[in-house]
Every structure is written in C-alpha cells, then in structure tokens.
Amino acid sequence: MSPHLRFAAALCLMWPAASMAQIGPPPNPTATRPVVVPPPPPSPMPVRPVPVDSQSGQVAPMTANRQVQSQLGSHPIQAQGIGPAQPIQGPTLQPKVYDRHGRIIPGAKQVGPNRVLDTRTGKYYDAVPSGDGQQIKP
C-alpha cells in the first residue's frame, strides 16, 4: 500500500472524529434571555343552577320579570302586511367604448363624463358620446 493511500485512508477515518470534537451540546436557549410565562386563561363563567321543584324533582318553569311582561303586553308588534314589490334590478351595463376608427375596445370602461380608461394599457382618453357608448376623440 502506498504512503499516499495510507494517509488518505487515515484522514478519512479521522475526519468524523475531528468534526465531532468541534460540535458540543447546544446552549440553553433561555441562558441569554428571560423566560416570560403567559398568564393563565381566565376561569370560565360559573353556571347558574337550574331551579328544581322540590316536591316532584322536575325543572321548575322560569318566571319572567313583571316589567318585561308589562312591556310585551303594552307594545305588540304591528304587522304591516306584504310590503310593496321592489323591481329586480340587474347589474348596470357599462356603455360600449369605441376607438378612433369605430371598433369596440374590449375591457375599456367609462370612468367619468367624456373620460374613458383602457384597462389593457392603463391609459385615460378623452371621448365623445357616440350612439350607445363613447368614442375616443381623434
């Protein structure tokens, strides 16, 4: 076996031991900063016991407050009947936008009186009313 091969084999065998010597146990993460413990969650609301009739062992009916009963008795809900029919309105259609040569520009929107936005280019144009829509000024 050549000395170079022997040296390479020894180096390969010693490499893991040398690298493990450099790696120590990880430091404690709380050694350099304080530990903050979150407060305990609030206690749940106490449950009121259900009133039970002592003679029969059944749940007693709840009695309403006299003030609540008097308000309910003095202010009944008045039904107005069927309300007036409201017409169903669909989405408003944007007027069509035409270019200088009279061709429809898909995706263009009217953004104000005599103003048009071409959503493809992001440019605003002056326009004039034209039939059922707007036409960009030449």
What's this entry about, in short?
The protein is α+β, with helices and mostly antiparallel strands and 138 residues long.
Global mean pLDDT: 78
Cross-sheet strand order for the largest sheet: 1-5-4-3-2
**Largest sheet, strands/sense/barrel:** 5 strands, mixed
User: Could you name the ranges where pLDDT drops below 50 across 5 or more consecutive residues?
Assistant: none
Write the element-wise H/E pattern from the N-terminal end onward. Answer: HHEEEEE
Distance between the termini: 92 Å
Would you tell me the structural class of the helices and strands?
alpha+beta
Strand content: 15-25%
Number of helices, where a helix is a run of at least 4 consecutive DSSP H or I residues: 2
Radius of gyration equals: 42 Å
- What general outline do the C-alpha atoms trace? flat
Record field, number of beta strands: 5
| Helical proportion, percent range | 10-25%
In quaternary terms, these chains amount to single chain
